[in-house]
Amino acid sequence: MFSTGLIVFRETLEAALFIGILAAATRGLAGRGLWLTGGVMAGLAGSLGMAAGMEQISTWADGVGADLLNVGIISVALAMLTWHCVWMSIHGREMAMDARRLGSSAVQGDASLWAIALAVALSVLREGAETVLFVTGFMSGSHDSGGMVLSAAVGLGAGAMVGAMLYLGLARIKPQHLFSVTNVLIWMLAGSLASQLAKSLIQAGLVDGWSDAIWDTSALLSNDDSLGILLHALAGYDATPTGLQVLFYLGAISLITVATARIKGKHDRQAATVKASA
Q: Are 198 and 244 in contact (CB under 8 A)?
């Protein structure tokens, strides 16, 4: 029964931290509550449908359909996070200087919020489907279904509470610093998604190389420790990462850093040119 609560807590925590960070990052954008709520609701509906059809999905592509679907979901979510990081690097400074003016601009807000809503939906979809499958699997082999449901509810509530606490903490940061802090957190989330993508590619049998663990820190911090679970959800910590996971992690954050710097530099030069000609 405890294992059920722990698994639900872990899956909920990953989605809750994801949502909390993105909610803080989009503070001041018009309609962001509706976009985020829509993403969560779409993700929940999709997770139930995905869980219901998982048996059939698993038969696709010679039995690796579920892994391939997971690869697709993570890839799109990673692309949306990357887009948001680049968008915020351009508009974050403007938003900090005049949050009210930009917050009332639906056009500028939508440019980032559609990507955030989709990323949230995919996160909830993946974590929700895994949660439903785990819980139903445990319940099918247990005579104490009531205890399982209670344990799952406690895990769900605890995970959501940690995510809410993170959001409330970020909400106390002054606007001029908030976007820098949330961009770093989103940067780490992107690295985490890239690491999970590498792991899914290996599990699906699409990649053979670099599939061995390159270190093992389980003795210091296990994946199942409370701190390990938190760091996994927040920054993609893995006690035994494969070489491909590390490569994808570093590659994702490097790509975002370089793309952000180049696009931000181009935007600043264009702004300076417009200002000089005015």
A: yes
Which residues lie across from 213 on neighbouring strands? 242
Domain residue spans in the chain? Answer: 2-277
DSSP summary character for residue 1? -
Q: What is the pTM of this model?
A: 0.79
Which class for 192: exposed (0-12), middle (13-18), buried (19 or more C-beta within 10 A)? buried
Structure tokens that stand for 23 in this block: 């909610």
Structure tokens at 141: 């082999």
- Token pair recorded at residue 248: 């994808």
pLDDT band at 2 (very low <50, low <70, confident <90, very high): low
Q: Which residue has the tokens 């960070």?
A: 21
Write out the DSSP string of 164-231: HHHHHHHHTS-HHHHHHHHHHHHHHHHHHHHHHHHHHHHHTTS--TT-SBS---TTTS-TTSHHHHHH
Decide if pLDDT at 90 tops 80: no
Cβ contacts of 146-153, under 8 Å, gap ≥ 24? 147/1, 148/1, 148/4, 151/1, 151/2, 151/4, 151/5, 151/8, 152/4, 152/5, 152/8
pLDDT digits (tens, 9 = 90+) for 241-272: 999 999 999 999 998 888 888 877 777 777 77
Q: Are 204 and 71 in contact (CB under 8 A)?
A: yes
| 25 has a pLDDT exceeding 50 | yes
CA end-to-end span of the chain: 68
